[in-house]
Each structure stands twice: as structure tokens, then as C-alpha cells.
Amino acid sequence: MSAEKAQALVLRARPFGETSAIITCLTREVGKVRGLAKGAWRPKSKFDAALDLLSICQVLVLHRSSGNLDLFTEAFLEHRFRIGRYESSFAAGLYIAELLDSVTVDADPQPELFDLATRAIRFLSAPRPGQRNEQGSAPDSRTVSALIIHTELGILHQLGQLPSLHCCAECQRPLEGRRISFSMLGGGGLCPRCRRGKRSVVSISSEAIVSLRQLADSFDQSENTSQSEPPFGEIRAIMNTLFANILGYRLKTSHWLAKTFSSSREKHR
Ligand SMILES: [Zn+2]
Questions:
Q1: pLDDT tens digits, residue range 138-197?
Q2: Are 67 and 190 within one domain?
Q3: How far does residue 166's CA lie from ligand 1's centre (Å)?
Q4: Tens digit of each residue's pLDDT (9 = 90 or more) over 17-43
Q5: Rounded to whole angstroms, how far apart are CA atoms 172 and 193?
Q6: For position 96, which CATH number holds?
Q7: I need a labelling partner for 217 at 20 to 30 A (CA). Which of 91, 119, 159, 226 fits?
Q8: 172 CA distance to ligand 1 centroid (A)?
Q9: Ligand 1: distance of its center to the CA of 177 in Å?
Q10: Is residue 182 located within the same domain as residue 123?
Q11: CB of 226 within 8 A of CB of 210?
Q12: Whole-prediction pTM value?
């Protein structure tokens, strides 16, 4: 048996027996780890909140022989996800966790992916009373929408599946016109000539492609050089279809995400 120390983000926690839990973590050092945390859900657990969903923590993992679940023997909390006023931030956190769990395999460390994920989770978490987090207050639903898309594009980049947003994926001609052909089966933007005969190609607006380019670089809307707001509804539909094509199924939390965003938009009207 070997033990490893790692920085971890808790993606999933499900009950095991009366008080134990099976925890899925994305770690910076050893990639995704699934393991048993004995007594994690006892009232006075030694893990405290470190293995709660969306916590960022330091863990000690004991690798056991094949066929046996690894064991979490220690966990120290670094950052606890705080649910603030906005349900959309929590929905976004759970969506990012499910997405990361879906696109990663066990024991394949990707430190850049881990850093991208933990930055997003820290940003979405509400500040403690009397404290400020990076953005000074809980992010509004537009910033959350932008952050999710920025994180999704970062994940696609890490997977080597970032769609072509500047030029035709096949012949590298610049993408022009008010409507752009966009291949969902890989590649992204296509010029009219390369579009012919392709399956799963949709027509997207030039505003959507310009926003996707900006959001790939930054989710900070104050850096958005175009005057208008990104067409978030259209971009959300593009991202959902892209990931459904990559994964072969639609993420469970994407439905909740869509619901919380439509209700928060109504409240802002
Ligand atoms: Zn082309």
C-alpha cells in the first residue's frame, strides 16, 4: 500500500453504510481519485467539512490493491464552498463538478485542469460575512454564465478539443458573415465551402462566435471589448450540444443550471 498527499477538489460524495462515504476527488498531483472515507458523515468526523461537496482540501490517500477502493485517511479543509444568495452560483459549481467527473479518468493528473477548476469554484463561492472574495461580492448571474463558458472552453482546451473559433477548422480561411457554420462533431467553425456534405453542422450567429472568442480568454465582462452583452442563451445551447456530443449523454446538472438561470433572469427584469 502506498500513501499519497494531494490537493483535491471534491466532485462527488455518496453514502456508504451508515456514516461512511465514497468520495470522488479531482487532485492536482494524482488526477481523479475515488475512495472510501470511513466515518466521514459522523457528527464529529475527523474530516470535518474537508470532504464536503465542492470543498478544496489536502488529502492523504492510501492506494490499495486492485479491486479495493482507495482510502482517504486524512483531509484538511483549504476552502469551503459557501452557498450565497444566488442559487445559480451553486448550480454552476455542481455543473462544473459533474463536467469534470465526466471528462476525466482515474489517475491521470492534469494540473492545469485542476487549477482552472479550483479558480472557478473559489470564484463561485460566496464570501464569508465581513470578508471579500476575488470579485468583492457574490457574482451576478451574467458573470456566472460567463465564468461557466470560460471554464468549459478551458476544459475543452485541456482535452485538445477546443473548437476552431477564428478560422475554418479545415482550410483555415477566416470565418466571415452574419451566420457561421459550426460543426458539433469536432472542429467548430467551417467556411461555406468546407461545410458542404458535413453532418451535425448548425448555423450560429457572428455575435456568438465573437463572444466565444472573448470568453475563451476571459470571463471578466469589463474586458469585453464589444458593446453588447454576449448571447448567453445561444452560447449555452452550443456548449450543451458540444459536450453531449463528446460525452454521448447530457449532464444531469445542465437541466438545473438552465432552470436557475431562467428564474434568476426573470428576477432581474
Ligand atoms: Zn474551409
A1: 678 888 999 999 999 999 999 999 999 999 999 999 999 999 999 998 689 999 999 999
A2: no
A3: 12
A4: 999 999 999 999 999 999 999 999 898
A5: 12
A6: 1.20.1440.120
A7: 91
A8: 6
A9: 14
A10: yes
A11: yes
A12: 0.92
Give the distance (Å) from ligand 1 centre to CA of residue 226: 26
Å from CA of 211 to ligand 1 middle? 21
Cβ atoms of residues 121 and 81 within 8 Å: yes
256 and 134, same structural domain? yes
Domain at 39, CATH number: 2.40.50.140
CA of 154 to the centre of ligand 1 (A): 24
The alpha carbon of 19 and the centre of ligand 1 are apart by a number of angstroms equal to: 57
Range of the domain at 152: 87-268
Residue 16 and residue 137 in one domain: no
Q: How far is the CA of 109 from the centre of ligand 1 (A)?
A: 35
- Residue 46 shares a structural domain with residue 91: no
Number of domains in the chain: 2
* CA angle (246, 24, 20) in 5-degree steps: 150
Cβ within 8 Å of residue 208, ≥6 positions away: 180, 230, 231, 234, 235, 238
pLDDT at 269: 47
Least confident of 62-66, 73-77, 97-101: 62-66
> Rounded to an integer, what distance in angstroms lies between the CA atom of residue 140 and that of residue 81?
17
